[in-house]
Structures are given as C-alpha cells and as structure tokens.
C-alpha cells in the first residue's frame, strides 16, 4: 500500500476524509375492545401505575387537562399520526387484538407472554373463537390455512423448528402461497415475534380474506414486516349488522389524525361515509419496553355505532414512517444496485463513503438496501476493488493486527493510481458501528451471516484491547503525519474515549443477542477502564482519550473535550453503577450533569440567545464568521446535536419513571426545542430533504471548519450523518438493541 502524497495529506479533502465519527411482540398497534370505556378503565393492570399516576384520570380534553396540571412539557412525544384503514367489503375495519391465554381482551397484553393461537371474531355473538390452537404448533404441521375464496390465494403456515437459531427456546414459522412459494418467515421466542421476513421484500402487511363455514364476519390478526399488529374485519352477505358501514369491495381508505395538536378532525369521504375522530383522553403508559409515548383513545363513529381504538407508535415505527423517506431518498437513490453503498456527502469526497455513515444508513433504512450494505461489508473483500464489490478490509499484512473494516470505502472512480491518495485508515469505532448495524438488523431478521459478521468485528476489536481494558484506536501500520514523516504506530498508541464507548455498547449488545459471557467480560473490562482512567467526576465529563509516548499514557486535556463522549455515555451502565451515586436518582442526576457539561463547553446560541445545538469541540463552538454583515459564532454539528437531543429524551423518560415530573419536563422541553430547530436545518432538494454536516447558528452551511478532533467539516448541502436527526425525532436509540432503552 503506497503512502499518501504530501499534497493529499495537507488538503482539506484529506482532512475531511479522515472523519472518524465512530469516534415483541409489541402491542403498539391499533386496538379495539368491545367493552365500554368505563369497564375498560376499571380493568387497568398494575403495570400502568408508574407513569399513569402523574396524570390523573379525567374526562377533560387532553390539552386543558395537561395545561391545568402544568405538566404539558413533560409528556409530549414527537409528532406522530394515527391512520385508520378501511379494507374490503363490509364493516369499517376497526383494528382489534387477539385474546390472551388468560382470556382477557388483550388490551394490556403482557409482553413477556407468547401464544401461537390464532383467533377470529364471530360477528354474530361477538366472541373470539380459535382458528388454530397451540396444540398444532409441531414441526411440519400447518398452523392455519385459508380456503380458496373469492379468488384469494391459498395461504398456510407450518412450524419448521421449535428452536431459535441461537439455541434459545422458540419457534420458526414459514408461510406459503398456493404454489408452494415461501412468502413469509417468522422467528418467535418467549418474548414474542422477534423477526418477520416477507420474502417478496415488501414492507406492507399481507392482506387476506377468509370465511368460516357459516359465512359470518371474520377478523384475522396478522403482523406486518415491522411487527405492527393489524386485524381485518370482513362481512359476508349472511352477516347483517345494521350499525355497520359498508364500502365498495376492495376499497382502501385512510384517514390521519395529528396526535401533536390534540385536535378532533372530521373527514368525509363521500356522501355515504363519514368518520368523526375525537381525542378524548391522553395517558402515559409504562410497559415492559419502557417506551414513554403519548397514548390516546379515539372515538370512531360509524353510522351511529362507535368503537374505541387505542394506538401508540413505537420508536421503530416512527423511524420507518413514510414522512421520513425524503430524508433518505437522496442517498438511497444514488446507492450502488449491488453493494448498496452510497456517498456520505452530497458535494464532497465523490468517490467514497464512510463505514460509520453506512452503519447509520443500514439502521435508518432497515430495508433491502440495508441487506446489501451488510452483505458488502460481510464479504470481507480485501481487493481488488470494484463498484459492485468494494474493498472493505486492508490487504493481508498491511496492518497488525489485521481483520479491520476500513473507515473510508472507495465506491467509484477506479482509474489511474487512485490508491496512492486514498485514506486507508481503520479505527475501532467504525468497526463497532457496522457491527451494531448488523445486530440491529439481525434482531429484525435473524440472518446468520449478519451475526457471523458481528462476531468477526468483535474478534478483531478484542485484538486491540490493552492490559488496562481500554481498546487502542487502531492497528499498527496506518499512516499518520505529513510530508515531514509518518508515525505508523500512532493509532496503536492512542485510545479514543468515543471509540471505546461505541465498542462498549457493541460488546454489550452482542452479549444481549448471543448470551456469550466472553463478550460481557470484554465489555466489563472496557467499562472498568473508562471509569478508572477516562471519567473526571469533578468535571462531570470524560477525557477525550489518551496517548502513549515512551510507554507513558497521558490523557488529553479538557480543552480538547469531545461532545459525543457525553452524548454516547453508557446511560444504562451509569444508572446501575454506584460509582456514579448512591441511589438511582443520584446516578441519573450525574448522567444529566455530563450532558450539562457538554452544553456548557460546546453549546451554540443564535443571535437571540436561543440554544440551537452543540458543536464538536470548545474550539469549533468559539469560531466566529461574518456573513452578509451578520456576526455568527459557533458551528453546530447536526449529527451530534441529534445525539444530544436523543439523550435528553432518555433522561426525561427516566425521570418520569422515578416520579419527578419537573425534571422530566425540563429535559423533554429541551429535547422538543432541539428537534424543532434541527428540522429547520434540513432543506428540500430535487431528490429529498438534506442538511449539511455542520451549520452556523442561522442554518447556513459551515464548510471546512476545523472540528478540533483531526478532521474538517466537508462541503455540500447534504451529509448522511446528519440524518441521525431521524433517530432523535423518532426516539430510536441506535446504541440500544431494538432502539428502546430498558428501564
């Protein structure tokens, strides 16, 4: 591998190219119950009580109630929408849930309970009746099948295995159409369905009609590829219900309610159909997944009859909402059709992409392109590079230890001696992040290749672990320096806190997925190192890292503070560790102080004194420029501000669990303000919505600014890293398996 030229090493693009930002079944779907609201309120389970008690039960409007209680800022989730879908010829398609084994209506379905029974709802007597029972859940036997009716295809499921791939208990189900083609695969465990694969690649729910022998209305419960629960109601000519509305055969009508405004809306489709939606009551739910969201009840009138529907979007569902598609479109549209890789920046470094950014894309997309991206990295290609098969690892013998994934992947422009000026660096952080992406996708669809790839990243990273538990920044053999000389052991003799935090979460997540104690031991050693050497309790901050010279390790001064050491601090471990306080509240207060320190050191305000985000470093937060006569101070990192906002949301949720509404409201108010500000940094272009890598307080692009950490902000109107905003807006934490932090 040739050394970079001196001209390249000194260029802004070279600095930009060294970006190292590595640094269950859910009941969250529309539900229906045949009981009255009064009956249902009386049947609340105890699991609700934690956050429920913070908002008294009331029949007042949600807005007036929350205003009168003075708690509005504490319980407002990101904007979400409710969609009611009407399907088929028959009654309005109110969504329902199956009964639990205990016989309740499933409104408060325990997340840890599983069942393989399928039920239908009899339109005549209103009872739920078994369509297929758990007794049939044996290998090779059908679970249920649909009679051929009205031109509908045959649809059946069978049990393939009663073992989850990693050895835990569970069941693998496969679904087939009339031709015998497998169209769906599910992996179910004791905690519910953990993965659903629609072989066609479609991410929408399978819609199907079946009839019972009496030809009465049936309601069948299915799940879509995002594990959202749907139920469909169908009515035959023999089932007459005067109170039900009918729509034309095959019609699909959708209506939305903005849950942010809390306003009732009235939608008229035509002269024969009118639905009135009225938001009657809000509450905050506390379930096993600890997802703090608004939860509303909606009264839906249909020809004089009404049903009650409950709906709550999970962070995963918010992340995959259609309105987020324009943010990813500019990058997905330009992605290679085979590898799935795409440029990190629109307007800079046109020939490459950063592994960290591809990890984000694979977690933001969760679709066919994510599978391509992971496949490209899992190929472990060491060259020669092509557009369809990029080189993702160094050549044998280039680095010691070998086996790393490269930071920067060449994806186009393979002419001339391009390799002589390419950035061939390989750091631990990007390896951890592409491993995190593999695990997040494996959770949704357990592809063994993705788990194998994650384990390979772990095997490489372990080789970087020093005797003190900390992981070195990268292997020996990499070029660092300028025309005056290169230090090929620099990264071996450097430990980055940001990298170690990412690696810690990766090993924790790998242990969570596999149960292999070896990964936990590695994570524990990293955590012990960080606490002993990188945490400054007096400053409520991490040191950025440390470097060894002559065998002596010296931490970086706090003047080199890196904001993402606070935004990626391991909140779960900190809350469980007495090192940070005697009680959970004390420890949470310390987590909040770490974030406060980041704001104090790198916070950026606009000309009116409004806090608009955080910068990369103390230095970049203090840079001034005059644009069109206006003095601007401080460069905002869209990505790191999104991390900061997401952490404020997590802190708010935890304070709410501890019963401190004031602290919860304080953090959530800051979260909401930042999400609104961040959204304003995105602009429309022909292919979608984009935001620069960094902006000035007025939202203008901040180009070639020294971040203070070894790279410059890139050119261009759009940066994929800035789409971290979607994680913040959706409440999805990519550092937590499934995106939802457990309490």
Number of strands: 35
CATH class of the domain at 1-23 and 336-556: Mainly Alpha
Strand order of the largest sheet: 1-16-15-14-13
Assign the CATH architecture of the domain at 1-23 and 336-556.
Alpha/alpha barrel
Shape: globular
Q: CATH topology of the domain at 1-23 and 336-556, what is it called?
A: Glycosyltransferase
Overview of this structure, please?
With 743 residues, this protein is α+β, with helices and mostly antiparallel strands. Among the domains are: 1-23 and 336-556, Glycosyltransferase, CATH 1.50.10; 583-733, no CATH class. Helix content is 29%, strand content 22%. The protein is built from 20 helices and 35 strands. The strands form 14 sheets. A five-stranded antiparallel beta sheet has the order 1-16-15-14-13, with no helix packed on it. It has a five-stranded antiparallel beta sheet with strand order 5-6-7-8-9. A three-stranded antiparallel beta sheet has the order 22-25-26. Residues 1-126, 128-171 and 189-312 have low confidence and may be disordered.
């Amino acid at each position: 591998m040739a050394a970079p030229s001196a001209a390249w090493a000194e260029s802004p693009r070279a600095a930009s190219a060294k970006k190292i930002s590595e640094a269950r079944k859910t009941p969250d779907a529309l539900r229906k119950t045949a009981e009255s609201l009064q009956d249902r309120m009386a049947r609340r389970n105890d699991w609700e009580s934690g956050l429920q008690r913070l908002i008294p039960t009331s029949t007042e409007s949600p807005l007036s109630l929350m205003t009168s209680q003075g708690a509005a800022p504490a319980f407002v989730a990101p904007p979400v929408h409710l969609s009611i879908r009407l399907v088929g010829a028959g009654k309005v398609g109110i969504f329902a849930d199956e009964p639990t084994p205990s016989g309740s209506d499933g409104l408060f379905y325990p997340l840890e309970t599983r069942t393989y029974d399928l039920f239908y709802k009899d339109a005549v007597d209103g009872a739920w009746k078994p369509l297929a029972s758990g007794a049939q859940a044996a290998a090779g036997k059908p679970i249920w099948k649909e009679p051929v009716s009205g031109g509908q295809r045959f649809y059946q499921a069978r049990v393939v295995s009663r073992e989850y791939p990693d050895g835990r208990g569970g069941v693998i189900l496969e679904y087939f159409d009339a031709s015998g083609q497998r169209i769906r695969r599910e992996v179910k465990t004791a905690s519910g369905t953990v993965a659903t694969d629609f072989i066609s690649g479609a991410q929408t729910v399978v819609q199907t009609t079946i009839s019972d022998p009496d030809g009465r209305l049936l309601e069948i419960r299915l799940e879509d590829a995002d594990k959202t629960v749907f139920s469909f109601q169908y009515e035959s000519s023999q089932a007459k219900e005067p109170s039900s509305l009918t729509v034309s055969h095959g019609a699909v009508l959708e209506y939305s309610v903005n849950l942010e405004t809390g306003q009732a809306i009235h939608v008229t489709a035509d002269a024969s159909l009118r639905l009135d939606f009225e938001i009657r009551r809000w509450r905050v739910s506390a379930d096993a997944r600890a997802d703090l969201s608004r939860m509303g009840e909606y009264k839906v009138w249909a020809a004089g009859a009404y049903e009650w529907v409950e709906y709550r979007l999970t962070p995963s569902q918010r992340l995959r909402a259609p309105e987020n598609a324009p943010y990813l479109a500019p990058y997905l549209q330009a992605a290679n059709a085979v590898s799935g890789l795409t440029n990190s920046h629109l307007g800079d470094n046109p020939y490459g992409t950063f592994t960290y950014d591809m990890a984000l894309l694979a977690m933001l997309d969760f679709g066919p392109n994510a599978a391509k991206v992971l496949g490209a990295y899992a190929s472990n290609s060491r060259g020669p590079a092509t557009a369809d098969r990029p080189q993702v690892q160094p050549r044998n013998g280039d680095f010691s230890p070998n086996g790393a994934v490269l930071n920067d992947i060449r994806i186009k422009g393979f002419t001339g001696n391009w390799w002589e000026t390419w950035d061939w660096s390989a750091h631990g952080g990007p390896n951890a992040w592409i491993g995190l992406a593999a695990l997040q996708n494996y959770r949704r669809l357990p592809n063994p290749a993705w788990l194998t790839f994650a384990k390979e990243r772990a095997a490489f990273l372990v080789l970087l672990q020093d005797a003190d538990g900390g992981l070195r920044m990268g292997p020996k053999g990499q070029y660092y320096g300028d025309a005056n000389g290169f230090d090929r052991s620099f990264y071996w003799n450097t430990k980055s806190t940001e990298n170690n935090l990412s690696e810690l979460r990766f090993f924790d997540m790998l242990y969570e997925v596999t149960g292999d104690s070896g990964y936990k031991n590695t994570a524990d050693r990293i955590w012990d190192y960080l606490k002993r050497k990188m945490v400054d309790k007096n400053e409520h901050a991490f040191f950025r890292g440390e470097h060894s010279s002559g065998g002596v390790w010296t931490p970086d001064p706090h003047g080199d503070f890196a904001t993402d050491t606070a935004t990626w601090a391991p909140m779960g471990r900190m809350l469980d560790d007495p090192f940070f306080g005697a009680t959970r509240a004390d420890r949470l207060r310390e987590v909040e102080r770490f974030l406060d320190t980041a704001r104090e050191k790198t916070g950026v305000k606009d000309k009116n004194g409004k806090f608009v985000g955080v910068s990369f470093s103390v230095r970049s937060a203090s840079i001034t420029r005059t644009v069109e006569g206006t003095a601007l101070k401080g460069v905002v990192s869209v990505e790191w501000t999104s991390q900061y906002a997401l952490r404020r949301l997590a802190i708010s949720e935890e304070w709410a669990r501890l019963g401190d509404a004031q602290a919860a409201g304080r953090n959530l108010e800051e979260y909401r303000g930042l999400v609104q500000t961040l959204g304003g940094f995105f602009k429309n272009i022909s292919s979608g919505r984009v935001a620069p890598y960094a902006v000035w307080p007025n939202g203008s692009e901040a180009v070639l600014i020294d971040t203070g950490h070894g790279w410059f902000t890139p050119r261009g109107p759009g940066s994929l890293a800035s789409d971290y905003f979607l994680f913040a807006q959706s409440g999805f934490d990519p550092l937590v398996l499934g995106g939802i932090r457990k309490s």
